[in-house]
Structure formats: C-alpha cells, structure tokens
Design a protein that fits this description.
Layout (H helix, E strand, L loop, with lengths): L3 E17 L2 E15 L2 E7 L12 H12 L9 H8 L6 H19 L3 H5 L6 E2 L2 E3 L4 H13 L5 E4 L5 H11 L5 E4 L9 H6 L8 E2 L8 H9 L4 E3 L6 H10 L4 E4 L1 H4 L2 H13 L3 E4 L6 H11 L32 E2 L13 H7 E6 L2
Parallel strand pairs: 5-6, 6-7, 7-8, 8-9, 9-10, 10-11
Antiparallel strand pairs: 1-2, 1-13, 2-3, 4-12
The structure holds 2-succinylbenzoate (OSB) and magnesium ion.
Length: 363
C-alpha cells in the first residue's frame, strides 16, 4: 500500500501550568502522527511527553518504537484490530502502539466516510464531562472549582500529594459540601501510608485515583479492604488481562480509561467491557491532549460502556489556540463527539506549523 507517514513534534503553551505529584507541565510537547494514503489524511497523537514521569515511556522512546518496529506492521494499512493483534508481540510501549492504533481508526473511519464514534459502536452521542484540576495554591484551587461548578462540570478531580491532602480536601469540602469530588494521587503513596489514606475517607470522595505504585494491583487490593473510599486505577490498568486481574482480586471498582495508555481503542473497549461485567465503573481520562488526541478520547467517552464523567474538558480549558479549527464545546456538562468522518477535526495547518519543532518522515 502506498502511503506516507510523518511524525510532527509540536510544543503548545498551556493556559495554566498543570502540576501533579510527579511534576509540572507548562507546555504540551506532543507527537502528532500524519498518514496520507489514497487522498485520505489521517491523524493521531502519542500521549507521551518530554519526560517519562507518568509512566516509563516518553516522546523519544515512542518515536524509536514506532520507527523500529511498529511501522513495518502497518505496511498494508491493517484494521486497528489486526494491528492490535500484531503489536502484542511487542512487550509494553503501549503509548507508541496507541498512537499507531488510533491513526488506523481515523484512517479506516475516513475510508468508510463515517465518524469514529459511530464506527466504534454503541455511542450515546455525547460524553459526560468532569474537570481535572492541577495542584496550585489553595485559594486558587477553590476559585477554579467554584468556576468549574458554575460552568456545569459534572465532577471535580483534584490532584493530591502526600502531606498536603488533608488541608486541601478539608477546605474544598468546607466550601463545597455537595459536589461530586475525586482526588488523583498519581502513585504518591505506599502501602505504609494506610493511616493517611484512612483519613481521606472523611471527605466523601467518589473515588481515589491511583494511590499506590504505577503498576501495582496487590497492595491496592489490600488497601481496598482497609478504606471505604472506592479505588479507581489509572496507571496500573494497561491491558484487558490486567483489568481482569484487578477485578478478580478486588484492587479497584472504577477504571480510568486512557486509550493512549492501553495501546489504543480496541483494547480500551475490551477493558471497559471487562470492568462493567465485573460491576465496576468506567470513565475516560486524558493526558492534556491537543485537539487531535482529545477527539479520540471524546469518541471513546461517548460509548455506552462509559458510565462516569471523565476528564475530556473542552480544548479552551487547556490552550489559548489549539491546532484544530473546530474545538469541542461543553453544554450542560456534556460534549458531543465530532460528526465529520473519522475524528472529524479540521486541522488548523497554520497553527500546527506555528507550534512545530521538528518533523520526522518515517517512510
Ligand atoms: O493522572 O489523569 C492523570 C494529566 C497528565 C498526566 C496524568 C494525568 C493527567 C490529568 C489531566 O489528570 C487529564 C486531562 O485533563 O487531560
Ligand atoms: Mg490519573
């Protein structure tokens, strides 16, 4: 099959620096994949960033794996499902795989002339939306929560860090006793911190996200028996098999699906199905994606399998000017997936060029 594949490295300034327990991001430094074949231009985004802080992959390792092993698996432009099977022989590197897998979803949906959420199947036609707020001074956090609640976000997630959690959660609950609230620890606790984690039970969180190590299940299962706050796993959920194990041992009752972390949408749908079959809850998270990556998350988040509001806020929450001309808009706490073919984004080529740092031609 005749096609060209490029990886465009963009750096986009964020409206607010985003601070988590692992660090601060002030720019979204993303890899955008662009495939041109038979008159179709398809796009995707790798969710890695400059440093391997959230997981072990970063932009350099992802580009290396795409170039060295994944590109030869797509010479016939396979379906995303076929690619997912082929790519299983690569152990790990889910973010690199996810970028390629989603590129194939966009390509094949465009080939069919249908929007991605329709091709994925079982779309509700909208996604329920919450907001993830990075760490900041307490006053600033309270102010942002207040504005977010007024704009209709269906749940508020705050980032927490060991030693500062009680202060922030108690101040939030004093001011907002009734909001749907969650906290994301991004792995900052250990199993020796059970006493602190028990104190968090007071704040009526819908769930606590990834309190323990980024790949752990066993200690999360132990923690789940000790605290009443439900546990949601993010980093630890990397495959359908791991999801089964997590539910079988009781490590979580909620799953944050990030298609980029799970190696693409094919396995993300499988993860969602397994979680729901086990009586769990599912929502779609994000990695501060540009309008391109965001459109895959919103399509997934519109699935009937997804029953909790996720982190797919409108583009304007993250960037002053995005690289798409049709950003998502939220109404009544919901966002509709795009109706154009594939991911349905209109690329703003001028902005894309403006943010471009380098381009690698891969074939
Ligand atoms: O853990 O969910 C996370 C952002 C970067 C890395 C990890 C996470 C996040 C977020 C923000 O929480 C999600 C978003 O709004 O895109
Ligand atoms: Mg998280």
């Amino acid at each position: 099959m005749d096609f060209s594949l490029k990886v465009i490295n963009v750096e986009m300034p964020m409206l607010y620096p985003f601070t988590t327990s692992f660090g601060t991001e002030s720019n979204r430094n993303a890899l955008i994949l662009e495939l041109k074949a038979g008159g179709i231009s398809a796009y995707s985004e790798c969710v890695t960033s400059v440093r391997p802080d959230y997981g072990y992959e970063d932009n350099d390792t992802a580009l290396h794996i795409i170039r060295k092993v994944l590109i030869e698996m797509i010479s016939d432009l396979p379906t995303p499902q076929e690619f997912t099977e082929r790519a299983r022989k690569v152990k790990g590197d889910n973010m690199a795989k996810g970028a390629v897998e989603m590129l194939l979803w966009d390509y094949h949906s465009k080939l069919k002339g249908k929007p991605l959420h329709e091709v994925l199947g079982e779309s509700k036609g909208y996604a329920d939306v919450g907001l993830s707020i990075g760490m900041d001074r307490i006053e600033a956090t309270l102010d942002r929560i207040s504005k977010a609640v007024d704009s209709g976000y269906q749940r508020i997630k705050v980032k927490i860090e060991k030693g500062k959690e009680i202060e922030i959660l108690s101040k939030i609950r004093d001011m907002f006793p009734d909001i749907v609230l969650t906290a994301d620890a991004n792995s900052c606790y250990s199993i020796n911190d059970i006493d602190i984690l028990k104190k968090i039970d007071r704040y009526d969180l819908k769930y606590i996200e990834q309190p323990l190590s980024y790949d752990d299940l066993i200690y999360h299962a132990r923690l789940a028996k000790e605290i009443s706050t439900p546990i949601c796993l993010d980093e630890s959920i990397t495959s359908p098999e791991k999801t089964k194990k997590a539910f079988e041992i009781g490590a979580c009752s909620v799953v944050n699906i990030k298609p980029g972390r799970i190696g693409g949408l094919t396995d993300s749908i499988a993860v969602a199905r397994i979680a729901r079959e086990h009586g769990g809850h599912v929502w779609v998270g994000g990695m501060l994606e540009t309008g391109i990556g965001r459109s895959f998350n919103v399509a997934m988040a519109s699935s009937k399998l997804v029953d909790y509001p996720g982190d797919t806020a409108p583009n304007s929450r993250y960037f002053k000017k995005d690289i798409v001309k049709n950003p998502f808009k939220m109404e009544m706490g919901r966002i509709k997936p795009n109706s154009g073919a594939g991911i349905g984004v209109e690329i703003d080529h001028e902005q894309l060029l403006h943010y471009t740092k380098s381009i690698s031609t891969l074939n």
